[in-house]
Amino acid sequence: MSDFANTPSPPYYAVIFTSEQTGNDQGYADMATQIRKLAKQQEGFLGMESARDKLGITVSYWKDLASIKKWKLNTEHLIAQHKGQTAWYKQYKTRICLVERDYEFK
Amino acid sequence: MSDFANTPSPPYYAVIFTSEQTGNDQGYADMATQIRKLAKQQEGFLGMESARDKLGITVSYWKDLASIKKWKLNTEHLIAQHKGQTAWYKQYKTRICLVERDYEFK
Questions:
Q1: pLDDT tens digits, residue range B10-46?
Q2: In 3-state terms, what secondary structure has residue A1?
């Protein structure tokens, strides 16, 4: 996940997921790959950007709130969320946002 | 910048700044430190979260659009933006977002 998300003109939605890992990363990389692959297949998915050093920040972009809600309740995603809470993440915060404007420099 | 932002209950605003660096980082660290310090002093500033590996993602949180606009036009910030475009950043994208909901795990 090293590319810029090629999002459409606003409005659209962003989910900002900020996390701190426990240090136990057993199974994490495989699950992360699988979950990203699955997210991309969801209706309303527009893109994803991710970076990690001490904190991890992953921003996924979505067409609307309905798409985000559906993805949150996706069975495989729920399994990953549970594993995240019991093993990988010490702390995380999720913010659901309406992107009102964007601009870029290239 | 390794801590979670201690933001209030929504609604508030987020500015998602996604960047790719050129590899020329002369003067970057000092300017980044200075700009973060300055941002924290602005009216309406609520917090900031940052991570970088290949991509850099910095999310700053603000009380309202007026605070964001004022910060965007701050003189020292404008100088940093210009230096960013001419030296440090190959590409960046900025998204202005209304945070509608948030939840956390600790």
A1: 999 999 999 999 999 899 999 999 999 999 999 999 9
A2: coil
Distance CA A44, CA A3 (A): 19
* Residue type for position B78: L
Task: Give the residue extent of every domain in chain B.
Answer: 20-56+65-99
Provide the pLDDT confidence category of residue B2 given band limits of 50, 70 and 90: low
Q: Which fold has domain A21-99?
A: Alpha-Beta Plaits (3.30.70)
Q: How far apart are the first and last CA of chain B?
A: 19
d(C-alpha B95, C-alpha A98), whole Å? 10
Contacts of B105 in chain A (CB under 8 A): 84-85, 89, 91-93
Q: Does B66 touch chain A (CB under 8 A)?
A: no
* ipTM (interface pTM): 0.94
Give the C-alpha separation, A75 to B106, whole Å. Answer: 22
Query: Which residues on B lie below 8 Å from A1 (Cβ)?
Result: 55
Q: How far is A101 from chain B (nearest CA, A)?
A: 5
Distance between CA atoms of B90 and B19, rounded to whole angstroms?
Answer: 8
